[in-house]
Amino acid sequence: MSLADLANKAHYSRGYLSKIENGLKPLSRDIAQRCDDAIGAGGALLRLVQGQPAVRRRRQVPVIRIVDLPPATTWFYGRDDLLDRIAALLDPKRPRASVIALFGLPGAGKTELAVQIATQILDAYDGCLFVDLRGDQGPLATDDVMNKVLRRLGLPGELIPHDADEQTALYRRTVRERRLLLVLDNAGGVAQVSPLLPPGGRSDVIVTSRIRLAALDEAEHIQVGELDPLAARRLFASVTGIDTALDDPARNEQVDRIATQCGFLPLAVRVAAARVRGGSDDALDRLAVQLDEAPRFSVLDDGTRSVGAAFASAVAALPAEVAHALAHLSLHPGREFDDRSAALLTGAGAAPGHDVVRLLEGLIDACLLERRHAGRFAFHDLVQLFATELARALPREGAKDRFLQGYLQIAQHADLIVTPSRFRAPQVRPEPADWYAKFADAEAATRWFDDEQSAFVGVCELAAVDRPDICWRLAYALRDYYFRTKRWAPWVRTHVLALAAAVQCDDPWAVAVTCNNLGLAYAETERFEAAAVQYARALELFSSLDDGYGAANTIGHQAWLAHCLGHQPTAIRLGLQALRFYERHDVSRNAAITLRTVALAEAADREFDAALGHLYRAREIFSAEGLMLDEVMTLNCIGEVYAQTLNLARSAKYFRSARRLGRTAGSTFEQARALCGLACVEATAGRAQHAALLVDQAHTLHTGYHPVPRQATRPHASGVVDEQPTV
Length: 727
Known about the structure:
Elements: H1 3-10, H2 14-21, H3 29-39, H4 44-49, H5 80-89, E1 99-104, H6 110-121, E2 127-132, H7 142-152, H8 164-176, E3 180-187, H9 190-193, E4 204-209, E5 220-224, H10 229-240, H11 249-261, H12 266-275, H13 281-293, H14 296-299, H15 307-316, H16 320-329, E6 337-338, H17 339-346, H18 356-365, E7 370-371, E8 376-378, H19 381-391, H20 397-418, H21 442-452, H22 456-466, H23 468-485, H24 488-504, H25 508-524, H26 528-544, H27 548-564, H28 568-584, H29 588-604, H30 608-624, H31 628-644, H32 648-665, H33 668-684, H34 688-701
Parallel strand pairs: 1-4, 1-5, 2-3, 3-4
Antiparallel strand pairs: 6-8, 7-8
Helix pairs in contact: 5-6, 7-8, 10-11, 10-12, 11-13, 16-17, 16-18, 16-19, 17-20, 20-21, 20-23, 22-23, 22-24, 23-24, 23-25, 24-25, 25-26, 25-27, 26-27, 27-28, 27-29, 28-29, 29-30, 29-31, 30-31, 31-32, 31-33, 32-33, 33-34
């Protein structure tokens, strides 16, 4: 009689009778009676169980040592520290089992790292199982994974129950007493992993995932990043077969360029290297050009492996709003950004129910965004490139315009709080600050300038395309920051863009004020002829607009330019002309700045008493108005004038005062200037060794400072005035 016929006649399920047959369920007297009746045994079957306890017989399953790891690659570089760290965590002498959760970017080499460490330590285990959970392509169900593991451990399929709870219990019983190393690769989430963690404290688990499995509380979470440049070079050279040629600096430079274009991701480096196996110089050059000019992800695809496909699957797993945030954040042109910019780009600051922190955390957990210092965020280069391609498929103008308007407001209010004494015409006066443009104090605003400096040129370039009105206003808001920090190249670049934008806006005042600021940048970088051209254009426009303040500012800048060129009588005449206007209109700060310019020209003309008198007056004004940076600059000027008169004691006194106040003001440039002034005093006094130490300290503070003034009587960057409002 078949088992099916017996099940029908005994009125028990076939599966239940099968479990009895295999010793997984006890044979009760009731079932024995029914089976006896069904097969017509005349009570013989029933008598076999009468008076005997029900015995549950287990089918013995042989313990087989299984190792099903994929082969570890020979070319594996740059992960020694991680290997050592993981090996220490899996030390058999530790008191309990470990769970290691490796997470990181697609293509970072998480799986290979897991295979490498498992291969090294597998002799310490009864077996090692590798299971691909397929988290990137539709995760495997947990019971399917358990079924796979149980079969690999030697259990016949007929012993594995279909009921999920029964299967879980069998899985736990089977692995509890074994010492296994379980490698769960490509996990899609914690829910897929938690039921698979072996009980009993004897087995270890290595999990890899593209997301941080934060809910695995007791796991050791280790992020796998890109390779260091040397490891990327070695990997590329090994795959291409050119490792014997790496003593050639030119070849190294070629390989390093390609590795950089690959973002130092192992997958990208391997795919790129496979394209030029053999690695002639021409082939390497062609590959580098392709990576620059062609769609990069099409180059990083060899038909079997695709960096773009790996990124696409990671993005596909994101909630829609997080994926959109990724695309919009790629519009930010800097290397880093903060939550202010993120809120503007994503609209999370204005849209109901949106929370920029939640969006950013979602991207961080997916390893598509990196958290940097003090609330700063950054993309890996390839992620930014991929996100930029995503953004092309989305409507971007709203996000771009919202970002540019908000960014201008942030910069304007940061400038306002750092230099409240700066005069601002109505055209550049900011609107009341929205939440994202508010700063707690001047220190916070200064920190924003420092953090965002790498983005300023890019934002100006972005605005120059569609919002020239924002472009020139943003450059205006940045000018004082550039003057304080002496970042010449971005100062010139932003103002060249701003000048073209002002012309495009057909706004003569905007053109004039931008010419004035651009002229100052040219003067500070010793492009004196170019500065003179800009000042002449600015003065002509201000005069035509009957803008006395603007004209006075330009004349003051021309006075400084004349001083730089050694035309001291002209510098004094122009400076006094501007000074009369400022004193007549009670513009004390600009008057003090112009006094400083006149004083330096007088000192260069050896009118030392007049120069010192003007500098003392300027210092009084700056001190009374709390203009610390201007006071520091003036103290340095006084020290330099006394040095010219060889009054070394007084010179040193003022340089030391400038150094102390420069620390409080936060100006590394003026501190370096004071140190170099003290070095000149020491050298003049015959203490050359001490002078050299002071110069070294100055270089440490600010590498851009010239130890020797460009003109013997001309201190660096001392006489500059701000733009004034039209009255």
